[in-house]
Amino acid sequence: MWVFLRLLIGSIFLVSALSKLFSPYQNFLYAIQAYQLLPSHLEVYVAQIFPWIELLVGFFMLLGLWTTWALKGTCLLFGLFVVVVGQALIRNLPLEQCGCFGEALHVPADVMLLVDSAGILITLLLLRHLDKTGRFSLDSYFDKRQAV
Amino acid sequence: MMNKKQVTLLIVVVSVLLIGGVKFFIGLRAPAIDPQEARCKGNPQGRVKIVEFIDFQCPACAEGVKILNHYLRQHPHDMYIQMRYFPLANIHRHAVISALYSECAARQGKFWALNDLMMSQQKQWAQLISAEPAFQLMALQAGINMAGLNACLALDDVREALYKEKSLGQSLGLTSTPTYFINNKMIVGTKSLQEALKADFPLAAQEQKGLK
Do residues A72 and A127 lie in contact, with contact meaning Cβ atoms separated by under 8 Å? Predict the structure, then answer.
């Protein structure tokens, strides 16, 4: 189950990243602007860089490479999403959808807030059971090789 | 045998190259946008050429039209605007029918007359269950030949023209409206539009700020 959860979260991040990366960055920029949180020049940087962070975190989670760091990063990202989506809901901003998955999936912001909160819990559990989470991973392969 | 750091580096480099390559390939295959005389205004030789993809029921598109009209009034010789359809039927119930009316108006050379009315009255007709009576009234006010309009609305090729433009937009990477191409640079949303226009026309931007 722990490995499955690791793969599931990795896949979610990977799908989210690829849907943004294969689309012009301006589409994600438009989604970021809807949250009215950052100054304009920062929004552009975030729109261009953020999908790459999601991609690497997703890849590392799927492959089980630097799993502890990937899990901490994932937890941090979920926390960030909760803050960003939460403040938008509190301020009653007119969000038609969260913009989290580009065009791949349309998820309402309130539903995404629940998903992100669940994400934090799951990653914390995965961190707690790191020995089981790390099965079938590149980390365990390298650890075994080093032991030999 | 590679160690852990080398594998990490390999994954990062391969990801960047693979995705960068696919994006480059997609960019090469993006089609060019042909001029459509029936839905253009401004100076064809203007230095700022704007192609806007809109959904007539999208509130941000109506705001975008206001912004563009302001800049066009200030700089009629510098701007050339072309409008394209990108109806989002999954979220706007009148997206397709409003675009059909617009296309039929365009075929009578009355696109902008109807467009101005549609955009200024969007809040009213967007709430209706059937917006056709409102469109008929606006078409009358725009001076459109009603018999010609109603015959046009039944034509298959009008709908085809609409979907052709939508697929053109999709192949350019559009996912939402309003999306603009200002001198071929993609801009999504009115905030980015204002920033881009402000850079092109700083004086008009100050005047617009003063009007608010």
Answer: yes
Task: Confirm if A32 and A46 have CB atoms less than 8 A apart.
Answer: yes
CA distance linking residue B81 with residue B63, whole number of Å: 15
Measured distance CA(B30)–CA(A26) in Å, rounded: 16
Q: Is the pLDDT of residue B211 over 60?
A: no
Lowest mean per-residue pLDDT among A115-129, B34-48, B50-64, B99-113: B34-48
Quickly count helices (H) and strands (E) in chain A. 7, 0
Please tell me if residue B19 touches chain A, with a CB cutoff of 8 Å: yes
Reading the block at residue B8, the tokens are 């990490």
Buried b (16+ CB within 10 A) or exposed e, B149-172: beebbeeeebeebbeebbebbeeb
Number of CB atoms found within 10 A of residue A54's CB: 24
Interchain CB distance below 8 Å, A30 and B23? no
Give mean pLDDT, residues B164-169. 91
User: What does the pLDDT look like over A39-64, one tens digit per residue?
Assistant: 988 999 999 999 999 999 999 999 99
pTM score, two decimals? 0.82
- Chain A residues touching B3 at Cβ < 8 A: 142
